[in-house]
Design a protein that fits this description.
Strand order of the largest sheet: 4-3-5-10-6-9-7-8
CATH architecture of the largest domain: 3-Layer(aba) Sandwich
Largest sheet: 8 strands, mixed
Number of domains: 3
Radius of gyration: 25 Å
Distance between the termini: 60 Å
CATH superfamily of the largest domain: Periplasmic binding protein-like II
Structural class: alpha/beta
Shape: elongated
Order of helices and strands: HHHEEHEHHEEEHEHEHEHEH
CATH class of the largest domain: Alpha Beta
């Protein structure tokens, strides 16, 4: 077991580990840190001895993070990003640098991008970096300044605030609703083509909520979230739309809602690492997006 080391020494060792984990190579880490490969290896061994668990699985030609190493790496990514971002704000004395935003491709294209220009106009010295991934868990090791996620709202060790609840309602074109007399007889829903986004679970929940015993899989198509409403716009069937994203088509009359809306137990949340909510760039983005939500 290694001897006790100071916090300054431990911070230095953690930084070495962070660089090695980024490259999954002691050689590349040594080049970045202007050290020898042997010195990097010794630092990692010293840190592992102090922590009393392994950070890497050492294979013949490559390194792989252990589960514990992955957790430490994710934590350090966030911590170092906060430190460097804070120093940058102090040096600049204004809102500048970069804001790293993470969300799903669907939210980015359907809701965020049509509005993001106004944020850019308000903060011309702040560079926007937008990352999109299908699932919230895929952002685990990205040093996000702010995330916009759809979930039940549980984010351990993070700060979050609800933007809006998920509201779902069947949508189709007026022509399709007329063809199947959907405004006249709700039971005619049994004869339509159901458009699913990803899976049939959302439609099943809606039918259960409405107490309708209808099979939503016998006649159906499956599309991504981005394309489900687009299919409805082509009169291909009835999609279970998201009110927040389909609003423009409902207001224009291109889509109609023959049936009731229900609120799910999920919603869209603004999320950041604990402590980031005090930073000026988070507060600027938070104030902007909350104003857009209520607009």
């Amino acid at each position: 077991m290694g001897g006790v080391i100071s916090r300054q020494q431990q911070l230095s060792l953690l930084h070495t580990f962070s660089v090695a984990a980024k490259h999954l190579s002691f050689t590349l880490a040594a080049q970045e840190l202007f050290l020898t490969q042997g010195a990097v290896s010794q630092r990692i061994k010293k840190l592992e001895s102090q922590l009393q668990f392994n950070l890497f699985i050492r294979k013949t030609r490559m390194l792989e993070l252990t589960p514990e190493g992955e957790r430490v790496h994710g934590m350090l990514n966030t911590s170092f990003e906060l430190i460097f971002s804070e120093l940058n704000d102090i040096q600049k004395g204004q809102l500048s640098g970069e804001i790293l935003i993470g969300t799903s491709p669907y939210f980015a294209s359907a809701w965020l991008m049509p509005r993001l220009k106004s944020f850019r106009d308000s903060y011309p010295n702040l560079s926007i970096k937008l990352l999109t991934k299908q699932h919230q868990s895929e952002f685990q090791y990205d040093p996000l300044d702010v995330g916009i996620f759809y979930s039940e709202g549980h984010y351990p060790d993070h700060y979050s605030e609800r933007l809006f609840k998920g509201r779902r309602t069947p949508v189709c074109t007026p022509e399709y609703a007329k063809r199947y007399k959907l405004f006249d007889q709700g039971t005619n829903l049994a004869n339509v083509n159901f458009i699913h986004s990803g899976s049939d679970s959302a439609w099943k929940r809606w039918l259960q909520e409405m107490k309708l015993d209808i099979d939503c899989t016998s006649r159906s198509d499956i599309f991504t979230h981005e394309n489900a409403s687009a299919a409805a716009l082509q009169s291909m069937g009835v999609a279970l739309g998201r009110m927040e994203f389909d609003k423009r088509w409902l207001e224009s009359g291109e889509l109609v809602t023959p049936f009731p809306t229900f609120e799910s137990n999920k919603g869209y949340d603004l999320v950041c690492p604990q402590g980031m909510q005090k930073r000026s760039k988070y507060q600027a983005f938070s104030q902007w997006i909350l104003a857009e939500v209520t607009r």
